[in-house]
Amino acid sequence: MLSVIPAPKNAKELGGIFVLPEKVKVKSDFELPLLEGKVEFCDSEEEASVIVIKDDKIAEEGYILGVTRENIVIFASKKIGVYYALQTVRQLAHLDTGGREVLCCDIEDEPRFGFRGLSLDVSRHFYDVDYVKKYLDWMFMQKLNVFHWHLTDDAGWRVEIKKYPLLTEIGSKRTCTQLNGWHSTKMEQKPYSGYYTQEQIKEIVAYAKERGITVIPEVDFPAHCAAVFAAYSDLACRDLKRDVPGYFGAKIPTKIFNQKDWNRTLCMGKEESLQFVYDVLDEICDMFDSPYIHVGGDEAPKDEWKKCPNCQRVIKENNLKNEEELQGWFENKLSQYLKTKGRQMIGWNEVLEGKNIDTSDKNIVVQYWTPKRDKNAEAYVNSGGKMIMSNHQSFYFDMPYAQYSLKKTYKFNPENFGVTNDNIKNVLGVEGEVWTEWIRGRERLEMLVFPRMQALSEVAWSPEEKRDFADFKLRLDDFKPTFDAMGINYAVDKISMLTNPFKRSKILKKFSKGNTELENQLNAQYKTKGER
User: Fold this and answer.
1) 331 given a catalytic annotation
2) Catalytic residue among 61, 109, 153, 218, which?
3) Catalytic site residue 392?
4) Domains in the chain, start-ordered, CATH in brackets?
5) Is 153 part of the annotated catalytic residue set?
6) What's the 3-state SS for 139-176?
7) Which of 19, 441, 474, 488 is deepest in the core (most CB within 10 A)?
8) Over the stretch 94-117, which tens digit does the pLDDT of each residue have?
């Protein structure tokens, strides 16, 4: 069995093996800096163990891999295709567990989708530079090529903006953190903070780029701005002095947490609010080279706008029908501003709720996440608009496996969410979401992400007709020693493919009412007993 995840487009086992020598010699038409110090480069094909040949006819991320008893030959048009071929060899040889034997084979491979993403929310819980790099390495191993970095939210602003230093001096710090799920009132009364300097951001972007990964930043506007208002309270409709909230819900229960009249949505009627957004986007565009900038646009409460004379004035001056169109007016401004900087705007599918949103030039990319079907999003993609699919049921990796099993991720199909067969070409790709309200550290993070990352990679890369869950499961079982060797805390089968309805019900009940760690605790117990 050619045990590779994601499954290649075309693969044929030939019989026999090639044993990688202890000192691998590579003859390459490309400079391959990631191999420096790990292999010996040479000029002769005769002495090379691995021969890399440039072939411009091959798709940008594709490769052709031939393994014989004598050597390994790779054809690719770009450096990233070579790296992906080597990731395939890495799995075939079981290099991470000490293996050296590669089955002789012919593989012709290229991705189904050009956009193969995974996110990480660092606002609710922060992860340092070294861990983000490790996260990128894991993505690279699975041929994922977009890192969606959720850098700002109500619970913390995590990116240095030099024009607005209080965003990190104040907005990156909170005095407490909610524990035990959405309905809990328990708070950990302990300071929490963290942010990335611009130099660290650029370091991560460069690290990702060398691995073929584009980093897309998300800075949320017009909502999810409570941390902004802790630093610059005048940007809200009402100038209220409030700390960064430690509560993760959309509305703080004021009777319990004494946070009366908190804001999370920017004022649309103050020129300084709009200028703030433009200034932030200027610095974000300087730090990130992605063609896309994510501006959020979801879950924007409009109660403040309804009572705000400045917002109502903008509605009247621009002949807008209501507050939904006020958000549409704002999103149009962001889209056009980013267009002047050579970038496209990504927004969650709620940005389409304003009927005045300008979709004529299709400069807005919609990220479809909502659990309920969204007719606006489906109409947009089916009329030529570009879409990223992150549907809650398949790709919300922060949810318990008891709610969304591994099979839910693997069985994803765009047509199940309203994309017609003729318009799948308008789907840029798919992305897994990792929100960290209830993910306090790497152990739980990894349990929720692995092996969902492997399922995601196959959905994103492999031809639909090649996907078979039973076959995937066999290859995943073969991959689990690699998880162990790399120190990754993955979910065992009894968790990731949980079928017992009583246990599922118990986990979900606890998750929403007091123990967000139960699934992880059960997973640890199973692993102690030797389960995989």
Assistant:
1) no
2) 153
3) no
4) 10-109 (3.30.379.10), 115-528 (3.20.20.80)
5) yes
6) HHHCCCCEEEEECEECCEECECCCCCCHHHHCCCEECC
7) 488
8) 999 999 999 999 999 999 999 999
